[in-house]
Each structure stands twice: as structure tokens, then as C-alpha cells.
Write a structure and sequence with these properties.
Strand order of the largest sheet: 1-2-3-4-5-7-6
Structural class: alpha+beta
Shape: globular
Number of strands: 7
Number of helices: 6
Strand content: 25-35%
Radius of gyration: 16 Å
Length: 163
């Protein structure tokens, strides 16, 4: 298993082969209707960025993950994978946990993600990364009315603010 900066080609490959539930989630918040369209949107948006990585197994790209700083000290997660993700899930999870610790040491106080309501496997994995649901279903969040749930991980400073 290796992790390196995601190229547009790697993003496109993983997007074209992403898990069906990942496609449902990403297409709900994208103007794309097909896997090919979505792969193009994601490759243009995230290929070659310093904050987007690709996880590889011995045969090729398996997952794309991003830690996008949407505003100072707040990271929004991006993640999608092929059905081969279980092969590298444990080392990728360890890598991400270590990355979160480095971000928090550098001053990041919030790491957040949204996920399609009912995507229980992903919600469990977000929990393993230390994110907790902070909303119930956000009704009508997706372009066709799909519900999403917001998850977050807060630094100790935010969980216990100083008066």
C-alpha cells in the first residue's frame, strides 16, 4: 500500500470505479448525472492538489481522500473508494488518524464531513476516525432531495472552550 498526491488520472480511475454508494453520495451533491461526468468533475476539481491523496494497493488506485481547508483551521473531508478499499482500509485509517493529529497540532480545531443518510458503513468508519454525528438528517440537502448527516471532530480547545 502506498499513499501519494492524487493525479487527475488517479481521481478519474477511482471515480469511474467507485462503490455504488459513493456514487450515490457524490452525484447527490454534483451536477453530474453519470459516472463518466462525475469522474470528469472530480478529476478537474481534485487532481493534482496538495491536499488530495490517492491510496494504492499492488494493482492500482483504490481510494481518494482530501483534507480541504475551507476556511482557517477547519478541514472538510473528501473520500471515495473502489470496492477494493477493504484491502487497504486499515493502513489508510492509521494514516488519516496520524494526519488528523498533525493538523490538530498545527491549530486545526474542526474536521468535518457530510455523508448520505443511511450510509452506515461510512458512518462507522467516520466514527473510527473520531468524527461524531452532529446533526440528524439534513433534509433535502442533495440535489434530488437526498438527506445527509454532518459529522465532526473537534479539538480539545473547542470541546472545552475557555471563558
Amino acid at each position: 500500500m502506498k499513499i501519494e498526491r492524487a493525479t487527475a488520472d488517479a481521481v478519474r480511475y477511482v471515480a469511474l470505479n467507485m462503490r455504488d454508494r459513493d456514487f450515490a453520495e457524490f452525484s447527490a451533491v454534483s451536477p453530474a448525472d453519470t459516472r463518466e461526468q462525475l469522474a470528469g468533475v472530480l478529476a478537474r476539481s481534485y487532481g493534482g492538489r496538495d491536499d488530495v491523496m490517492c491510496g494504492y494497493d499492488g494493482s492500482g488506485p483504490v481510494c481518494i481522500g482530501g483534507t480541504l481547508e475551507m476556511w482557517p483551521n477547519v478541514i472538510t473531508l473528501l473520500f471515495f473508494a473502489t470496492d477494493d478499499f477493504p484491502k487497504i482500509a486499515l493502513p489508510v485509517t492509521r494514516f488519516i488518524r496520524g494526519l488528523f493529529k498533525r493538523y490538530e497540532a498545527a491549530g486545526v480545531h474542526r474536521i468535518q464531513a457530510i455523508s448520505l443518510a443511511g450510509y452506515d458503513k461510512t458512518h462507522q468508519w467516520l466514527g473510527a476516525l473520531g468524527l461524531r454525528p452532529e446533526t440528524g438528517p439534513m433534509k433535502g440537502y442533495g440535489r434530488h432531495g437526498e438527506d445527509f448527516i454532518q459529522f465532526s471532530r473537534l479539538s480539545d480547545d473547542v470541546r472545552s472552550p475557555r471563558a
